[in-house]
Specification:
The protein is an alpha+beta fold. 35% of the residues lie in helices and 14% in strands. The strands form 4 sheets. A 7-stranded antiparallel beta sheet has the order 6-3-2-10-9-1-18, with helices on one face. A 6-stranded antiparallel beta sheet has the order 7-8-11-12-16-17. Helix 3 packs antiparallel against helix 4, helix 3 runs parallel beside helix 6 and helix 6 packs antiparallel against helix 10. It starts with a helix and ends with a strand. The N terminus is likely disordered. Bound molecules: 6-diazenyl-5-OXO-L-norleucine.
Length: 558
């Protein structure tokens, strides 16, 4: 679409409050997730009379089975919900929490230096999982069907198996050595001789099926208490971890108010802390709102977006952490006045070195973690980003559980200024404390105008926020779902002071111009993200579900 028309469209979006009744045509449900079998599990549940929240449980559980590299029962995440009947918007925070015996220095040696890989390897790197508690909570509070019904597709996939696909095979090969060190993980994902299975090999996970059955029968108790809990704790401790039965028993999801912002009349609803996603997304958009992005040439437009990212990621590093442990100036960080101050330090012709911003270093994230977007025919919607942090978490599976453990403890700032696996730095706000949730970049979001809606999110570690920002700007420019997920990405996260970009994201002319403004550019050798988008046009009732071509996902309309 020509930029001028897109801008005109953006302008006629009337300011919106979610209480506004929007006349909508009948429409179908839609699910976009990182793997077809998971999208189909959600579709099965919608067809069985479930709502989007039931489908979210089914999709998450199926992803735990068919995309075990990215999320699972041993991890956690954020479920952003919108209930159409009363307009309720809420976020189910199922983020992992630090074990009760965690300490601020637990990954440092006596001299105070970081012990290499300590926060990413072995069960000591695992926080207490939140995903199984989310299943129970979503089902009881928001769903229509029983867990027995919604978990059935995942149980079937775990017990009967599914054919190994190329992307998962790549992940297994990448983590082969680590998986080989955990006999249970090796049994699940490697051949008896320790080799990587061929594409098409049927991966069966009977122990995971049994754990899912325990949750189906007893809800959260089936995981956090009783036999499964005892096996988890025994396995973790045998591997050098510090979980206790009480850590598991006391885990609770927390319902939090999502963050809400406005950009050129569009309503942005996104994840609140302990995710940094919504704060950074809304702050970036607030900064950008004061520029006419359609009146400038494309290099300047990208420059301004990069400068907004730089400032928002800086604030992430300095201020953000678990809201139950630290006080954060959220009102300030998401206020238009604060953004105006940040904007005033941006020059249209020159990059500002990150060192010039007072503050506290880093590499873009890959494609671990997973996101799905779901809409049902009643208008209920879910944006969920769930994770076990790095590929296959720490690769450790306690015996008899089928559960791969997360290494989300690495999302804490293990030492001020010490970059984590995503090169992100943090301050005291994100220091380790017992029972605290580590700061996340996961950014499940809804972008709503008077004309329509986008449900969006992606994996990608630190790059998630910049991806959702670009997706939001593109949606508001009139781009359709399949182009939004395809769009070539660029990213700046304050430190390191570098613009990473995918091949094709910047033209030669833009590269030359951005360099002349003072930006350091680095073309990435790979692509990042695995964005899943559902869009809904209110007037026509048209829904689209698009899955990132970088992955092997599928968008389905039901
Ligand atoms: O919560 C976070 O920000 C990270 N644990 C997400 C990890 C992730 O996206 C991995 N993908 N590259």
């Amino acid at each position: 679409m020509p930029i001028a028309i897109a801008f005109a469209l953006a302008l006629i979006f009337a300011p919106l409050s979610h209480a506004d009744a929007v006349a909508t045509a009948p429409h179908k449900g839609a699910i976009a997730s990182a793997y077809p079998l998971a999208s189909e599990a959600g579709q099965e549940i919608l067809a069985a009379g479930g709502n989007a929240f039931d489908a979210a449980v089914a999709v998450s559980a199926a992803l735990a089975v068919v995309e075990p590299s990215s999320s699972g029962l041993g991890g956690g995440g954020f479920y952003l919900l919108h209930r159409q009947a009363d307009g309720l918007e809420t976020m189910v925070d199922a983020r992992e929490k630090a074990p009760g015996a965690a300490t601020r220095e637990m990954y440092l040696d006596k001299a105070g230096n970081e012990i290499q890989n300590a926060s990413t390897s072995g069960p000591l790197s695992s926080a207490i999982p939140g995903e199984p508690a989310a299943f129970d909570y979503l089902s009881r509070k928001y769903g229509k069907l029983t867990l027995k019904r919604t978990l059935a597709p995942a149980i079937r996939l775990a017990r009967e198996g599914f054919p190994l696909y190329a992307r998962l095979q790549f992940g297994i090969r990448y983590k082969q050595k680590i998986l080989a060190q955990s006999p249970e993980a090796a049994k699940a994902f490697l051949m008896p001789d320790g080799s990587v299975p061929e594409v098409g090999f049927i991966i069966k996970q009977p122990e995971l099926a049994t754990t899912l059955e325990a949750i189906a029968a007893q809800g959260a108790k089936g995981f956090y208490q009783g036999r499964v809990a005892a096996d988890l704790v025994a396995g973790v401790r045998a591997g050098g971890g510090i979980w206790t039965l009480d850590d598991l028993k006391s885990y609770r999801v927390i319902e939090r108010k999502p963050l809400v912002g406005e950009y050129h009349g569009a309503r942005i609803v996104s994840a609140s802390p302990p995710s940094s996603g919504g704060v950074a997304l809304i702050d970036s958009l607030n900064i950008l709102e004061g520029f006419d992005l359609h009146a400038v040439d494309s290099a300047t437009r990208k420059h301004l977006i990069i400068e907004a990212m730089r400032r928002a990621y800086r604030d992430r590093a300095i201020y953000l952490g678990d809201p139950d442990f630290v006080r954060m100036p959220l009102e300030q960080l998401t206020s238009v006045d604060y953004a105006a101050g940040q904007r005033s330090s941006i020059r249209a012709d020159k990059a500002m070195p990150s060192d010039f911003l007072p503050g506290i270093e880093s590499e873009p994230g890959g494609t671990q973690t997973t996101h799905f977007s779901a809409l049902d025919s009643a208008g209920n919607r879910v944006a969920a980003t769930i994770s076990i942090n790095l590929f296959f978490g720490n690769g450790y599976m306690p015996a008899k559980t089928g559960v791969l453990l997360n290494n989300t403890m690495d999302d804490f700032s293990t030492k001020p200024g010490q970059p984590n696996a995503f090169g992100l730095v943090g301050a005291k706000a994100n220091a380790i404390a017992p029972n605290k949730r580590s700061l996340s970049s996961m950014t499940p979001s809804f972008v709503e105008t008077s004309k329509g809606l986008m449900i969006v999110g992606s994996p990608g570690g630190s790059t998630i926020i910049s991806m959702v920002l670009l997706g939001t700007l593109n949606y508001l420019d009139g781009m359709d779902a399949s182009d939004i997920v395809k769009y070539p990405r660029y990213h700046h996260q304050y430190l390191p002071d570098v613009v990473d970009y995918e091949a094709g994201a910047l033209t030669d002319a833009e590269i030359a111009e951005l360099k002349s403004m003072g930006h350091t550019l680095k073309e990435s050798t790979r692509q990042w993200g695995n964005m899943q988008v559902v869009t809904w046009d209110f007037a026509s009732g048209k829904v689209e579900a698009a899955s990132d071509p970088r992955g092997e996902g599928e968008g389905l309309i039901y």
